[in-house]
Write a structure and sequence with these properties.
The complex is a heterodimer of chains A (71) and B (478). By secondary structure, chain A is mainly alpha-helical. Chain A has three helices and no strands. In chain A, 46% of the residues lie in helices and 0% in strands. Chain B has 478 residues and is of the alpha/beta class. In chain B, α5 packs parallel to α6 and α7 packs antiparallel against α13. The chains are: A mainly alpha (71), B alpha/beta (478). Chains A and B meet through α1, α2 and α3 of A and α9, α10 and α11 of B.
Chain lengths: 71, 478
C-alpha cells in the first residue's frame, strides 16, 4: 500500500455492500463471521507492503523461471 | 491366497494383512508369484472391512478394478509387463477426473458429474497398467474442509479417528495409511498431499511445479496446484511420479520442465550431501511445539549420522510465504468457483463457502503485490540455499486438532509450513519421522530447488531405510 491506498479493513456496512456487489449471498451471521475473518486477513496482508519488493520486476512466469532469474 | 506381507510386520501384533508396497509387489507380479487379481481382492476386502469406519472412499469401482486386474494378469502372463505399476491397485482423489467414474470435487454441486475423459495423470497411470480402485474423499473443491456439512463427511484418521486426518487429499492419506490401496494421487496447492501424509504417517511428494500435468484436475489455484503421489514409502512415490510426470500439450506449465537425475531410481544415499536444517520455520513464538522442534533436531542428527553434511539454513519469515500463498490461492480459488458460489451457494458447505467468499475480497493490487513478494522470496530462498543441496524442515507445526473443534478460518491464525514450496514450485516430500507422546505421527519435509525431485526422493528413501517408521502401521478396529 502507499499513502493513497484505502485501508484494507472495512466496516461491516461497507463489507456488506461489497459482498452484494460481488454477487455473494449469505445470512447475517455468516456475513459477520466472514467480516471478522476479513479483518484478520487484512492485517496479514500488511506483509505485502514490506519495502524491497521492486515494482519494476516482471511477474514470474513459472516457479523455475523465478528461481533461475534469482541468479 | 498368498500375499506378500510388508517388511517388519512380524515385529508387531497384526490382526490382518496389510498389502505390500509397490516396490515389493512389482517384481512378484512380474514373476507371476503375486496375482494382481488377488492383490485387488485384498484391497477390496480391506475396504469392505474398514472403510465404513474410515470413510476414505467416495466411490469403489470394484467391477472395473477386477476387470483391469484380470487384464493386467493376462498381459503379464503373455510377457507384456509394462513396468512397476502394472497390476498395482491405486486410488484417485475426487478432484481428479476419471473417465466413467463419478468425480464430484467433493461437492454437491457436482454430485452427479461423470467425466468422459481421464485426467492426464490418470491416463498415464492406466497406460502404466495401474488398477484404479475408486475415488477418494477430499475437502470440497480442495479448500473447504474438514466440513461436517460437506457432501461427504471427512475421512477419519486411522491413528485416532477423532482428530484431523489432514487435507485436502484426506481420503488418500487415510486409504494409504490403512492399507486400502497401494498408492494414490492427490493434489497440493498449499500442502494438500503433504499435510495428510504427515498426519497419517505416509509419504507424499509434491513435485516441481509443472512436472506433472494438471489437465483434467479441478483447479484451485492454477499457479500453485501440483498433482502428486501418495504412498506408504518414498520409494513408491518415486515409482508413481515416474509414471505420471512429463510434458502435456494440454497443460502449458509442463512444457520444458525436465527434471535432473533419475526420478524412478533416485538412489538411497545421503553421504556427502549438504542438507540445511530450517529451524526458523518452526522454532519461535506461536510456531512449532517443543515436540515438533525436538523431532526436527533428531531428524538432523540422524541425517548427520547417515553421512550428510548438516548446517543451518535461515529462510525468510514463514508468514511471508504464507501470506503470499494465501493471497494468490484465495483469489484464484474464488475465480475458479465463482459461477456456483454465486448461483448456488446453498449447495456448497459453509466451510467452503466462507473460505471461497473471502478470496473475492482480495484486491487486484494485493494479488499483484503477492506475486511480487513471491519473486522476492524466490530470490531470498535461493540465496539462503546457495551452500546446500537440499533443506529439511518440520512437516507440520502441531499435532492434529479434534475435527469437531476445527473452525472455518483456522488457517488464518497459524502460518502454513507447507506453503513455501507451492509458492516457489520447489519439490517437497513429506515423510514420517516418528510418533508423538499421544501416538500420533510426526513428519519432516525435504525440499530442494526446482527440478531436483530425484534428490528429494533420494533423501526420503535413505531416511526411510535408516529408520523404523515404515514398520509401524495403524491398528484398525476389527
Amino acid at each position: 500500500m502507499d499513502e493513497t491506498s484505502p485501508p484494507r479493513a472495512l466496516d461491516l456496512a461497507a463489507f456488506r455492500a461489497l459482498a452484494e456487489a460481488n454477487g455473494l449471498r449469505m445470512g447475517e451471521a455468516e456475513l459477520a463471521e466472514l467480516h471478522a475473518a476479513h479483518g484478520v486477513l487484512a492485517a496479514l496482508l500488511a506483509r505485502l507492503d514490506a519495502p524491497g519488493i521492486r515494482a519494476e520486476e516482471p511477474w514470474p512466469s513459472s516457479a523455475a523461471e523465478a528461481w533461475e532469474r534469482g541468479r | 491366497m498368498a500375499v506378500e506381507r510388508g517388511r517388519g510386520l512380524g515385529a508387531r501384533p497384526v490382526s490382518e494383512p496389510f498389502p505390500p508396497t509397490i516396490a515389493q509387489a512389482a517384481p512378484e507380479i512380474r514373476a507371476g508369484r503375486l496375482s494382481p487379481v488377488a492383490l485387488v481382492e485384498l484391497c477390496l476386502a480391506r475396504i469392505a472391512r474398514h472403510d465404513g469406519h474410515l470413510r476414505s472412499f467416495l466411490l469403489v469401482a470394484a467391477d472395473e478394478a477386477r476387470a483391469a486386474a484380470r487384464q493386467a494378469e493376462a498381459e503379464i502372463a503373455r510377457g507384456r509387463w509394462r513396468g512397476p505399476l502394472h497390476g498395482i491397485p491405486v486410488a484417485i482423489k475426487d478432484a481428479i477426473d476419471t473417465a466413467g467414474l463419478r468425480t464430484t470435487f467433493g461437492s454437491r454441486v457436482f454430485a452427479d458429474r461423470v467425466p468422459a475423459e481421464d485426467a492426464e495423470v490418470v491416463a498415464r497411470l492406466r497406460r502404466a497398467g495401474a488398477v484404479i480402485l475408486g475415488k477418494l474423499e477430499c475437502h470440497e473443491f480442495c479448500l473447504g474442509g474438514p466440513a461436517l456439512d460437506a457432501f461427504a463427511p471427512p475421512a477419519r484418521n486411522p491413528w485416532n479417528p477423532e482428530v484431523y486426518a489432514g487435507g485436502s487429499s484426506s481420503g488418500a492419506g487415510v486409504a494409504v495409511a490403512a492399507g486400502l490401496c497401494l498408492g494414490a494421487i492427490g493434489t497440493d496447492t498449499g500442502g494438500s498431499v503433504r499435510i495428510p501424509a504427515a498426519l497419517n504417517a505416509i509419504a507424499a511428494h509434491k513435485p516441481t511445479y509443472g512436472l506433472a500435468s494438471n489437465h483434467g484436475i479441478h483447479p484451485l489455484a492454477q499457479s500453485l496446484d501440483h498433482p502428486g503421489p501418495m504412498a506408504w514409502t518414498t520409494e513408491d512415490c518415486a515409482l508413481i511420479l515416474a509414471a505420471i510426470m512429463g510434458p502435456d500439450p494440454r497443460d502449458a506449465a509442463t512444457l520444458g520442465v525436465v527434471p535432473r537425475g533419475d526420478v524412478a531410481s533416485p538412489g538411497a544415499e545421503v553421504k556427502g550431501l549438504r542438507i540445511g536444517v530450517v529451524r526458523n520455520f518452526s522454532d519461535g513464538p506461536d510456531l512449532g511445539t517443543p515436540e515438533v522442534n525436538a523431532n526436527l533436531e533428531e531428524v538432523a542428527a540422524t541425517l548427520g549420522r547417515m553421512g550428510a553434511r548438516i548446517s543451518e539454513v535461515v529462510l525468510p519469515d514463514l508468514w511471508d510465504y504464507t501470506v503470499a500463498n494465501t493471497t494468490i490461492m484465495s483469489s484464484e480459488a474464488f475465480l475458479n468457483n465463482a459461477p456456483w458460489l454465486r448461483a448456488s451457494p446453498e449447495k456448497v458447505s459453509a466451510f467452503t463457502r466462507g473460505r471461497m467468499f473471502l478470496g473475492s475480497f482480495v484486491r487486484a493490487e494485493d494479488y499483484l503485490r503477492a506475486q511480487r513478494l513471491r519473486r522476492r522470496l524466490a530470490a531470498a530462498t535461493r540465496e539462503a540455499m546457495r551452500d546446500v543441496d537440499a533443506i529439511v524442515c518440520a512437516g507440520t507445526l502441531a499435532p492434529p486438532a479434534p475435527v469437531a473443534s476445527m473452525q472455518k478460518f483456522y488457517y488464518l491464525r497459524r502460518p502454513l509450513i507447507t506453503a513455501p514450496f507451492n509458492l516457489l514450485g520447489m519439490p517437497a516430500l513429506s515423510t514420517c519421522t516418528g510418533f508423538d507422546a499421544q501416538g500420533l505421527p510426526m513428519a519432516a519435509q525435504v525440499a530442494a530447488p526446482p527440478l531436483d525431485d530425484a534428490l528429494v526422493l533420494r533423501i526420503g528413501r535413505a531416511w526411510e531405510r535408516a529408520t523404523p517408521w515404515r514398520d509401524r502401521r495403524p491398528v484398525l478396529p476389527a
